[in-house]
Amino acid sequence: xxxxxxxxxxxxxxxxxxxxxxxxxxxxxxxxxxxxxxxxxxxxxxxxxxxxxxxxxxxxxxxxxxxxxxxxxxxxxxxxxxxxxxxxxxxxxxxxxxxxxxxxxxxxxxxxxxxxxxxxxxxxxxxxxxxxxxxxxxxxxxxxxxxxxxxxxxxxxxxxxxxxxxxxxxxxxxxxxxxxxxxxxxxxxxxxxxxxxxxxxxxxxxxxxxxxxxxxxxxxxxxxxxxxxxxxxxxxxxxxxxxxxxxxxxxxxxxxxxxxxxxxxxxxxxxxxxxxxxxxxxxxxxxxxxxxxxxxxxxxxxxxxxxxxxxxxxxxxxxxxxxxxxxxxxxxxxxxxxxxxxxxxxxxxxxxxxxxxxxxxxxxxxxxxxxxxxxxxxxxxxxxxxxxxxxxxxxxxx
Length: 398
Fold this sequence. Notes:
The protein has 14 helices and 11 strands. The chain has 398 residues and is of the alpha/beta class. It folds into 2 domains: 46-142 and 162-259, Class I glutamine amidotransferase (GATase) domain (Rossmann fold, 3-Layer(aba) Sandwich), CATH 3.40.50; 307-395, no CATH class. The strands form 3 sheets. It has a 7-stranded mixed β-sheet, sandwiched between helices. A two-stranded antiparallel sheet has the order 4-7. Helix 7 packs across helix 8 (272-291) and helix 13 (366-374) crosses helix 14 (381-395). It starts with a helix and ends with a helix.
């Protein structure tokens, strides 16, 4: 009893000691921990999470320009005659058909604003951007070496020096439609063109050309229009000036993510007659099906089949599984039992007389009756089936 009390007291003491230690730790943390708040960037939410140019769209809308952010290049037939199409994030090569459609749309009065894709080598004749090529422009790499990190230089210091370098070589003062803007167009690329009448500005970072009733603006980079960059320098004024000469009712389209056109969109634009014919065919099929809707007709009554047909089928089955002898013996025994009950005088006749009497009574050849009564095995399936049918006929005689 004393031992149990001692153990209990020891446990209570340990618990109190642990609580005291936790209390001391809490007091120390409370006295030495400094509380503070810090803003942490967690990224965009909502539409801005997927649309990197949402701020640009909202800006143009507030300026009175109806703007549509779209995913995937809109078909030229969707664009209005005097609309503006902005391609700020080009990563996919356009197909020849898409380029041809855009050329026709621009010639009809549209405004195309686009950045280049991947820069090409200035010494190479290879052209990787069908859109730039179609309008006589080419994006090439500048002969400009980016700074490298120095020995002992921290990452923060290098990042600051790199940004200063890129600002020095990439930020230009651009006059566009009567508005002068300070814009970052990138430091490492330039546009080349030998097209007569085209204008190259800002050390090759801008290409402008009048095409028919429309116009084309090509830039080395349009990163200045994304959600992070549009608040820097005069990027907002730059965007507004791009479409400032468009008529009041013209719309602006900003492709925030490239993707190939869907099959349905292509069919609507290029094969609407096929879709119309398919729709009419479906309607015709539905009309024909609706004419048949109503109460279900009863299944036609099946003709009663002869018992002999069932016996013949059973005989063929028994023969196929090599169990015909058992069926034949059972049929012969059933006939004899029937004769002893219904015609004992005939059943008592000798075998030869019995065959003759049954053949005469049934109107069958004696040979057929003899085979059915006397044979215990048949080598042919047809003979076996005939014997089963004969025995059933004899058993059903009155």
